[in-house]
């Protein structure tokens, strides 16, 4: 459980213990204008949930193995509506976890694109002809650690792509650009500020190309299973796919970091 440092409602740092409910310690804010009670689970994803944390953990395991909303609901004996809400609560926490992802070693880098999606919007026929290209960066290293995020709309913004990747690299890295001349140019610029590593061998480069292509192909297939994803949610789904691609739940360290980010933030 997370350490309580302030009131989750008003951010006041003075509070007192205020009894227990179902063996969970509760606190009361000492701010006279607030005076609300809370616990360490207040505002967590399972706050006010009638299901146990074991249910939530199992849901995460199913979700990150690629199970659908319906399959998760069936496995845990919850409604499809509850399954949908749980998925989106977890998706909202993923940026916190993925913000701590940093890539090292030799990294394959490329751009792909999706067409803008207005899934869920009304009067779709009026805007369907104005769909822009949504450019997405893909970065994968030899260990299959990965990162992917929207770069820009309509035209590929090289500066945005450069800065996005720069903030995700450890110093002991070397970037190899694939597929388009922009990725190759950005990779060269990034490598100037990184540690001078031994030049990537042809066999290593081919392996990286293979892993990058695998990420690309499987991402496209996976997105297709949802019959498209609204562009406003695309980054959340990219955050989700990273853990499916890396098979996070097979690695104790990775799954521990993921669960802490989801349940303790």
Description:
With 265 residues, this protein is an alpha+beta fold. The chain is 42% helix and 21% strand. The protein has helices spanning 53-63, 69-76, 80-98, 158-166, 181-191, 202-225, 231-246, 252-263, and strands at 15-21, 24-29, 37-39, 103-115, 133-141, 146-153, 169-177. The strands form 2 sheets. Strands 6-5-4-7 form a 4-stranded mixed sheet, with helices on both faces. The chain has a 3-stranded antiparallel sheet with strand order 1-2-3, with no helix packed on it. Strand 2 and strand 3 form a beta hairpin. It is globular, with a radius of gyration of 22 Å. The model has no long low-confidence stretch (mean pLDDT 84). This is Transposase. It comes from Clostridium baratii.
Order of helices and strands: EEEHHHEEEHEHHHH
Q: Report the strand count.
A: 7
Give the overall form: globular
Largest sheet: 4 strands, mixed
Mean pLDDT figure: 84
Strand % is 15-25%
Terminal CA distance reads 9 Å
By helix and strand content, what is the structural category?
alpha+beta
Radius of gyration: 22 Å
Low-confidence spans: none
Instruction: Give me the number of helical elements.
Output: 8
Cross-sheet strand order for the largest sheet: 6-5-4-7
> How many structural domains are formed by the residues?
3
Q: Helicity range of the residues?
A: 40-55%
Protein name: Transposase
What is this structure's SSE topology?
Blueprint lengths: L14 E7 L2 E6 L7 E3 L13 H11 L5 H8 L3 H19 L4 E13 L17 E9 L4 E8 L4 H9 L2 E9 L3 H11 L10 H24 L5 H16 L5 H12 L2
Parallel strand pairs: 4-7
Antiparallel strand pairs: 1-2, 2-3, 4-5, 5-6
Helix pairs in contact: 1-2, 1-3, 2-3, 3-7, 3-8, 4-5, 6-7
